[in-house]
Amino acid sequence: MVLFAIFLGRRVDATLRPQGEWIEVEGERLHYRTLGEGPPIVLVHGLGGNMRNFDYLPLAELARDFRLVLLDRPGSGHSPRSSDARAALGEQARVVAGFLRAMRFDRPPLLVGHSLGGAVSLAVALREPDAVAGLALIAPLTHDVPEPPPAFKALAIRKPRLRRALAYTTAMPASIARGQQVLTFVFAPEPPPRDFPVRGGGLLGLRPQAFYATSTDLTALEHQLAPQEARYGELRLPVHLLYGDGDRVLDWKVHGQALAAKVPQARLQVVPGAGHMLPVTQPQLTAEFLRRAAGDAFCATVRS
């Protein structure tokens, strides 16, 4: 099983090769991709995802007006992670904030976060508010969740040794067997596109190191969000929220409506009949959302 996991992981890496460039930040080697010129927009993916999750967006169209930067978070996609300690929410925020500085943008960017990437983006804005012009949060995780959704419970492995042992033995066959079931849950009530394993980078999640990193991310969230929740009222920058009212991964009222209630300037848009994977299932609507958020963020930057 170990040999099978290693072999298949290498096949996936050979099929979905890195698309972008590399940069060293805070001791982490980060993989990122840049498109276009103009005001910067940095996109951060969610739990178990990677930058390819945003490839359904009309990137070429957006790149005519903005400089798009798609990032693989440490431990995700093609970015390795130096240690499990870097999975903590504050540590992820420190690395992303360091990445924003290292990119030497001519102005603070609009920071876009999907799902767990939303929690990370909020942590960045609270940690270094001057580093970000605004937040565009897509189905973001914003508040503490007592337990993970049913499809993610198999990832809640608290002991690192057991986590690594499973990553290189049973995790990959189990992921292959349950793959369609998990995708159906994550995308529900919308159907997952058939090309998501390749175009959306779904296959990258089958690798042993990806399972290990995703499980580490999930377990590291325990007791991390409550202190952050208490500080949301400190946010002064523009905040835009996009949620599907059918999201089965994160309830839009618990995470979207609750955040909007704590941040007076936040604007919440709820999409009827949509689920959690809005960048994939609602690409044009999401692109329009990003344009509105960018307009607010960069206008606010100019006014300040």
Automatic annotation (TrEMBL):
Keywords: Hydrolase
Keyword Hydrolase: yes
AB hydrolase-1 domain span: 39-279
Source organism of the structure: Ramlibacter terrae
Organism domain of life: Bacteria
Protein name in the entry: Alpha/beta fold hydrolase
InterPro entries in UniProt: AB_hydrolase_1, AB_hydrolase_fold
Molecular function in Gene Ontology: hydrolase activity
